[in-house]
User: Fold Large ribosomal subunit protein uL22c from Lonicera calcarata.
Amino acid sequence: MFEKKQTDVYALGQHIAMSAHKARRVIDQIRGRSYEETLMILELMPYRACYPIFKLVYSAAANASYILGSNEANLIISKAEVNEGTPAKKLKPRARGRSYPIKRPTCHITITVKDMSLPEYVRKNFLEWSKKPKWKNKSKKPKWKNKYTDATYHDMYSNGGVWDKK
Assistant:
């Protein structure tokens, strides 16, 4: 009778050119805080990781207002995680024509915001009503769908094709 409604939205930033360890240092400070408090913290922290995380938090809030129609004042950072990405590989020229590999670390950051004002459960009937098609003839199919098409299956193994020769 009741169905769970989506109350959280995320934003994902991939291949951000910084170490995952340095980004986790900032992410641990904002996890579980409100959206407005998070923006103030990120503006005042002196780390380089704050700017891409700030952009992701802002993007997640924009996604929440577009998808859920929620207000930014009701959002909290429910989940924030940092994973290691593939390292960017370059070669640096060294003495006597040799090369030295350089691996620059990258990371993937996921910010999930949750709207605390939305109820967890809504009536299933309302959800079914909102998913119904909006055109007039709901029971009739379009005329082009009523045509029966017969597709014959041609198989080269059973019809004596290429593989029948000995």
In short: Confidence is low (pLDDT under 50) at residues 122-126.
